[in-house]
Amino acid sequence: MSSEIPPQVQNQLAQLQQVQQQAQSLAMQKNQMSSMQKEIEMALEELEKLSDDAVVYRAVGDLQIQSNKEETVAKLKERLETLSLRLQSISRQEERISKRFTQLQEQLQQSMGTQGQ
């Protein structure tokens, strides 16, 4: 009996690890975008409390740029919509990765089962 892992099983293990890393990366991206989405929603809530002629400053890189409420609300809503679309895309990718992970796990279990016999 050989204790070496067959090349086919090594390949399946490598694929499984790669898919697992992709899933972790997607989860991190999703968390970051969800946090950004919540910050924008909070900013929009605060802007609603201001009068329409209030002076507002937006962060642009290291600068604070004077703006107005209407323009700032429009930009924040645009960013919110973009984030929402990206989150939907990530969710679809997560579903595909999850299915692929399950498929690879089953293939690996089958390979390991046939190796032990």
UniProtKB/TrEMBL annotation:
Family the UniProt entry places it in: Belongs to the prefoldin subunit beta family.
InterPro entries for the chain: PFD_beta-like, PfdB, Prefoldin
UniProt protein name: Prefoldin subunit beta
Organism from which the protein derives: Methanococcoides cohabitans
Coiled coil: 9-107
Keyword Chaperone (UniProt): yes
Compartments where found: Cytoplasm
Gene: pfdB
Lineage: Archaea, Methanobacteriati, Methanobacteriota, Stenosarchaea group, Methanomicrobia
Transmembrane residue ranges: none
Keyword Chaperone assigned: yes
Function: Molecular chaperone capable of stabilizing a range of proteins. Seems to fulfill an ATP-independent, HSP70-like function in archaeal de novo protein folding.
Record's subunit section: Heterohexamer of two alpha and four beta subunits.
Keywords noted in UniProt: Chaperone, Coiled coil, Cytoplasm
The organism's place on the tree of life at top rank: Archaea
